[in-house]
Amino acid sequence: MDDIHDIKGLVPLPHNWWWLWLLLALGAAAAAAFWLWKRRNPPATGEALVSLSPFEIAMRALQQLREMNPPVEEFYTRLSDIVRRYLEDQMGLRAPERTTEEFLSEMSRDHALSSEHRELLRAFLQESDLVKFARFRPQEEDKQRAFEAAERFVSETQPRGLEAVAQP
Questions:
Q1: d(CA 139, CA 131)
Q2: What secondary structure does DSSP assign to the chain, as a single string?
Q3: Residue 95: predicted pLDDT
Q4: Using N-to-C axis directions, what is the helix angle for 72-91 and 115-133, rounded to 10°?
Q5: CB atoms within 10 A of CB 159
Q6: Among candidates 117, 119, 99, which has minimal Cα distance to 154?
């Protein structure tokens, strides 16, 4: 039983804490330098988007989507999202969080859009839902027609003071 010994006491830590203070000072200096750098160099994309109208944001997003030309399901999902975000930003309608049926029901009670625009939006959103949820595979001309419908909807529902912006 000589091989079992009693527990020894705590090992004392060295009283030499200068390295911890140095590490904390370096961390604080790095954080301050990063904060100053971020303050002097704000992100360029955030500044540009703040000054753009919902119409301009939607038209840019539509142009990017056209150039990107993703697969059909992703195309319809993004196209629908662009129109829904435009409606939320431009008219204060909670489009992105609602189902198409909930949103169309709200639109029928709210007269922010003309009946022609409500019908265009209804047909567009229902076709998008068929592609996204029912695995409908549209032809290329259907895809082009949906894009033109979204573009027409955004262009025709823009505020009247922005018509000059829409002209290329």
A1: 11
A2: -TT--PPP-PPPPPS--HHHHHHHHHHHHHHHHHHHHHHHS--HHHHHHHTS-HHHHHHHHHHHHHHH---HHHHHHHHHHHHHHHHHHHH----TTS-HHHHHHHHHH--SS-HHHHHHHHHHHHHHHHHHHS-----HHHHHHHHHHHHHHHHHTS-GGGHHHH--
A3: 66
A4: 140
A5: 11
A6: 117
- What's the whole-model pTM score? 0.62
Q: Please state, in angstroms and rounded to a whole number, the distance separating the CA atoms of residues 34 and 74.
A: 38
pLDDT digits (tens, 9 = 90+) for 10-56: 877 667 777 777 888 999 999 999 888 877 776 655 554 457 888 88
Q: Which residues contact 56 (CB under 8 A, 6 or more apart)?
A: 162, 165
Q: How far apart are CA 142 and CA 75, in angstroms?
A: 12
Which value, to the nearest 10 degrees, does the dihedral of the CA atoms of residues 138, 57, 101, 74 take? 30
CA–CA gap between residue 69 and residue 96 (Å, rounded): 22
Displacement of CA 117 from its chain's centroid (Å): 24
Amino acid, single-letter form, for residue 142: D
